[in-house]
Specification:
seven-stranded mixed β-sheet; alpha/beta; single chain; about 260 residues; 11 helices; globular; Rossmann fold
C-alpha cells in the first residue's frame, strides 16, 4: 500500500465499530511497567495512546507507512510515546520489545509464517505478541470486490492484479505460536455485529479499507467505474434492510514467550 492510499476521514466513518476489536485485544495484554512497546500499523495514533497508557510502558513507538494517517499522530506524542514512518515489512528492531502489538494491519503483509518469525525475533524473553486481523474474506462485501477486479476494463487497468489474502485459520496461528516458543497463548475468531444505516453503508465501510488497494492501482476515472460496478453487484447480493446487519469476523491473537 502506498502512503497516500489511506483516507483517515473515510476510515474513521465507522470509528466506534473499528475500535472495539482494539479494546478486546488490549484486554488480553498484560501490563509492562517500565517496558517498551511497538504498535505496528498505528494509523492516526489515537488508540496507540490508549495502548501506551494502559500498559504502563516506559516507551511506545507507533509505526505506520501512511503519511496521511500519521499526520494526525503528532498531537499524541510525548511522555514516552513517539511515532515513526516505516513499514512492517522492514521491522527488525536492534533492541527487542516487551510488547509487539498490531491492530488491523498484518492482513496487508504477505507470508505470515515468515512475518511472525520476524515479529518474534523482535520480542524480548517473556515478551508479548498481540495481533488483531479482519477475517471476513468470505463475505460478499469482500468476495465481490475481487470478482469485479477480474472484470474488464479493471483487470487490464491493474495488469491482472487481484489481492491475495494472507490471513490463515485460527488453529494455524495457534500451532505457529507453539512452534515459535510461546509459553502461553490465546487465539480466537470473534464475530462483531454492526447495525449500519443501510446496505449502502457496507460500500462506505469497504471503501475505507479493502478497496484502497484497488483504488491506488487505477486511474481515478477507472476507479469510479469500478466502484459503480462493485456497488451494483453488492446491492444485488445484500438484503435491503434498514438498519443493515453486518456480521464481521476477526482474529484475535495473543501470546507470551517463555522467559
Amino acid at each position: 500500500m502506498t502512503s497516500s492510499a489511506w483516507d483517515p476521514g473515510q476510515y474513521e466513518r465507522f470509528r466506534d465499530e473499528r475500535s472495539q476489536p482494539f479494546f478486546d485485544l488490549l484486554e488480553l495484554v498484560r501490563p509492562i511497567p517500565g517496558g517498551r512497546a511497538v504498535d505496528l500499523g498505528c494509523g492516526t495514533g489515537d488508540l496507540t495512546q490508549v495502548l501506551h497508557e494502559r500498559t504502563a510502558a516506559r516507551a511506545t513507538i507507533g509505526l505506520d507507512n501512511s503519511e496521511t494517517m500519521l499526520a494526525a499522530s503528532a498531537r499524541h506524542a510525548g511522555h514516552g510515546l513517539t511515532f515513526k514512518l516505516g513499514t512492517i515489512l522492514r521491522f527488525a528492531p536492534r533492541t527487542p520489545f516487551d510488547l509487539v502489538f498490531s491492530n488491523a494491519a498484518l492482513q496487508w503483509v504477505p507470508e505470515h509464517a515468515k512475518l511472525f518469525e520476524r515479529l518474534v525475533a523482535g520480542l524480548a524473553p517473556g515478551g508479548q505478541l498481540a495481533v488483531q486481523m479482519p477475517s471476513n474474506w468470505d463475505h460478499p462485501s469482500h468476495t465481490l470486490a475481487h470478482d469485479v477486479a477480474r472484470e474488464e476494463p479493471f483487470a487490464s487497468e491493474m495488469g491482472g492484479y487481484v489481492r491475495q489474502i494472507p490471513v490463515m485459520a485460527p488453529e494455524w496461528y495457534a500451532e505457529l505460536l507453539d512452534r515459535l516458543g510461546f509459553a502461553s497463548q490465546h487465539v480466537r475468531m470473534q464475530v462483531y455485529t454492526h447495525h449500519l444505516g443501510s446496505r449502502e453503508d457496507v460500500v462506505e465501510w469497504v471503501k475505507g479499507t479493502l478497496l484502497t488497494d484497488y483504488k491506488q492501482r487505477m486511474r481515478p476515472e477507472v476507479y469510479e467505474r469500478y466502484l459503480a460496478r462493485y456497488r451494483e453487484r453488492l446491492m444485488a447480493a445484500l438484503e435491503d434492510r434498514r438498519p443493515y446487519f453486518y456480521a464481521f469476523k476477526r482474529l484475535l491473537i495473543w501470546g507470551q514467550r517463555g522467559g
